[in-house]
Amino acid sequence: MITSKTVLVGLLGHPVGHSQSPLMHNAAFAAQNLEFAYTAFDVAPDDLKDAVAGIRALGLRGVNVTIPHKVAIMPFLDRIDPLARRIGAVNTVVNDQGQLIGYNTDGLGYVRSLVEEMKIDLHDQAAVLLGAGGAARAVAFTLADQGVKQLKIYNRSREKAEFLAEQLKSIAAVKTIGPSELKAAVEAATLLINTTSIGMHPHVDEMPIPAEWLHERLIVSDLIYNPLETKLLRHARQAGARTHSGVGMFVYQGALAYELWTGQPAPTELMRESVLKRLEG
Ligand code: NAP
C-alpha cells in the first residue's frame, strides 16, 4: 500500500518498458513489510541531469541506472564508490541525506550468483570472456578482484578488450585474444562467459561462437536472461557442459541495491521466483 510515508526508489533508463526490476523489488518490499515502492522512469539522454536533480528534490532514496545512462550519470553524482569508479559505470545510486553516491552492483551480483550456483572456487578457473562492453567491465573487474586464475578477453572491437586488459593486468593474469586464438582458448578453458548481447531476444537464433567448440569440461555462463536458456546455453548443455544463466546476476545485482537502500538483507529466493515466474510465463 502506498501512503504518505512511502519511500520511493526507481529505475532510470531509456527505454524501461520491459524491465523486470519494478516487479522484483516491489515483491520484496511487500514480503518484508517495508514502506518502499519502486517505479521505472523513462528518461531521454538530454533529460538525465534534470532527472538526477529530481532525485534530490523529491527525496527518492535511490535509483537503479540502466542503458544508456550508466556512464553518463557519473558526473552528476556527489561521490562514486571506488569499485564503480574502476569499472567506469554506475548501476545503483543511494541518496544519503541529499548526497548522491554511485555504486556498481553488476559485477558483485554476477560473481555471487556464479560462485553460489555453480559451487566453484574462482582460483581454479581459467576463464574466456566474450565481450568488453559495460557488463563485461563489471564482471572482469570483479573476477580479477576475487582471484580468478586466468582471464582471456575476446571482443569484436579488440581495442576495447585491450583497454580493459591494460587496467586489469596489475591484479590478475589477463590477456586479450584475437579471432584466430579463440577456438584454442575455449578448448583450454574451464569457464566461458558471454557478456555480449548476441543471442538476446529477439535475436534468439544467434550465438557468439560455433556450437562445435563447446565441451563437457566447461561451465558456460551467459549474462543474458531473456531468453532464460540462450542458444549458447542450449548447445552447451547438449555438449555436456554445466550452464549458468543471467537471471542470478539480475537477482543479485538487484538484491545488493535493495540492501544499500533499505539496510535489510534482501529476500533473494522470492526475488528470483518473481522474475522466473514472469520470464517463464
Ligand atoms: P554494451 O556495453 O553495449 O556491450 C555490448 C557488447 O556486445 C560489446 O562487447 C560488443 O562488442 C558486443 N556485441 C554486440 N553485438 C555484437 C555482434 N553482433 N557481434 C559481436 N559482438 C557484439 O552492453 P552491456 O551493457 O555490456 O550488455 C551486454 C549484455 O549483458 C546484454 O545482453 C545485457 O542484457 C546483458 N546484461 C545482463 C545483466 C544481468 O543482470 N543479467 C546486467 C547487465 C547486462 P563491440 O565492443 O565490438 O561493439
Secondary structure elements and their pairing?
Blueprint (H helix, E strand, L loop, with lengths): L6 E7 L7 H11 L4 E7 L5 H11 L3 E4 L13 E2 L1 H6 L4 E5 L2 E5 L2 H13 L7 E5 L3 H12 L4 E5 L3 H11 L5 E3 L2 H10 L2 E4 L24 E4 L8 H8 L3 E3 L2 H16 L5 H13 L1
Parallel strand pairs: 1-2, 1-3, 4-6, 7-8, 7-10, 8-9, 10-11, 11-12
Antiparallel strand pairs: 3-5, 5-6
The structure holds NADP nicotinamide-adenine-dinucleotide phosphate.
Task: Describe the fold and architecture.
The protein has 281 residues and is α/β, with parallel strands linked by helices. It has two domains: 7-104 and 248-280, Rossmann fold; 107-245, Rossmann fold (3-Layer(aba) Sandwich). The protein is built from ten helices and twelve strands. It has helices spanning 21-31, 48-58, 82-87, 106-118, 134-145, 158-168, 179-188, 231-238, 247-262, 268-280; strands spanning 7-13, 36-42, 62-65, 79-80, 92-96, 99-103, 126-130, 150-154, 174-176, 191-194, 219-222, 242-244. The strands form two sheets. A six-stranded mixed beta sheet has the order 2-1-3-5-6-4, with helices on both faces. The radius of gyration is 19 Å and the shape is globular. The mean pLDDT is 97. NADP nicotinamide-adenine-dinucleotide phosphate binds next to helix 5 and helix 9.
